[in-house]
Design a protein that fits this description.
Rossmann fold, alpha/beta, OB fold (Dihydrolipoamide Acetyltransferase, E2P), 32% helix, nine-stranded mixed beta sheet, 9 helices, single chain, five-stranded antiparallel beta sheet
Length: 317
């Protein structure tokens, strides 16, 4: 069991985390930790990965998980990208450049690596650093796999931070093509709903189960961590609505999105067949896209035979 029991409380010297219910992730699962900025998500991620020290106040034991941790802070060694990789990925029988070639049939990663490997880290933009760090995390996973080290999961702390639209597409491609087949849980820490949307888009269609865990303010320096629910393609519609109802963070998001940006700022993606209310601030839309019927969750009501635009949609499945 990942969260030991209802009374398990951990403290890192600054924030006290109380786990309010049990949660055990499956090996083939995506876990989303959600909550507003500054609630303690990154601190919790570091505790789960044993990246920082902490004490167990009440019941349970420290986490025994062997996790790879992708930090929110873009931490690199001085010098060129290749120098940083050589230090972080050093292992006598692991050639990371050869590994990039082996696992990259589409040449997306190898092209990206060749472009940046001789650049100094300080010359990179925030988004370029994020992608370099994503690739380093991917290679670290491959190193552990090839060298037969135990790995219980990977924690990504705000992996979409500072990414422009172009680099965000690269991020999605890397996650879908390189992480969709792993047999251990992937943990995502985020307050950005664009990333939540992308995770649905990427992983539901390859059969992953997605779980929500929300971090909430309890009292001063105390946070409650609550498992809200999990769903897959089979129970998506019913579970999605219940998760929104259970999550104050998601409910607030949808309340805020009742007034979307003007449709003129977005491309047309399809023609509406039928639309009906799904949840407060949400509408189920059936639309024809490229000759095929698709289902969407929309943030605006739509009339039959009207155009469906990209920024009106939060999720397509």
């Amino acid at each position: 069991m990942f969260f030991t029991n209802e009374e398990f409380t951990a403290y890192n010297g600054n924030i006290e985390f109380r786990f309010t219910n049990d949660f055990s992730p499956c090996e083939n699962e995506i876990i989303l930790f959600i909550g507003p900025n500054g609630i303690g998500k990154s601190t919790l991620a570091k505790m789960l990965a044993n990246y920082i020290d902490y004490d167990v106040i009440r019941n349970g034991k420290k986490f025994a998980n062997k996790m790879l941790f992708h930090p929110q802070e873009l931490i690199f060694l001085p010098g060129n990208v290749i120098d940083d990789y050589r230090v972080f990925l050093s292992e006598s029988n692991f050639d990371f450049e050869d590994e990039i070639e082996k696992m990259d049939s589409e040449k997306t990663l190898s092209t990206f690596y060749e472009k940046y490997k001789n650049r100094t880290v300080n010359s990179l933009s925030g988004g370029e650093k994020q992608l370099i760090l994503i690739l380093r995390t991917l290679l670290a996973y491959r190193k552990m796999y090839e060298c037969k080290h135990r790995i219980d999961g990977i924690i990504f702390d705000e992996p979409s931070k500072q990414l422009c639209n172009k680099n965000f597409k690269v991020l999605k491609e890397v996650f879908l093509n390189k992480f969709s087949e792993v047999k251990f849980p992937l943990f995502f820490i985020t307050h950005e709903f664009n990333l939540v949307h992308a995770i649905f888009e990427m992983f539901l269609k390859v059969g992953k189960t997605i779980s929500f865990i929300e971090i909430k303010e309890a009292e001063s320096k105390k946070k409650d961590i609550t498992f809200i629910g999990k769903f897959n393609t089979l129970n998506f519609e019913t579970e999605w609505e219940s998760i929104i109802n259970e999550s104050s963070y998601l409910s607030a998001f949808f309340e805020h999105r009742k007034h979307p940006v003007p449709a003129t700022s977005s491309e047309i993606i399809g023609k509406v067949l039928i639309s009906y209310p799904f949840h407060s601030g949400l509408y189920k839309v059936f639309a024809t896209v490229n000759g095929n019927e698709r289902e969407y969750l929309s943030i605006v009501p739509k009339n039959k035979n009207t155009e469906l635009r990209k920024d009106e949609v939060i999720l397509g499945f």
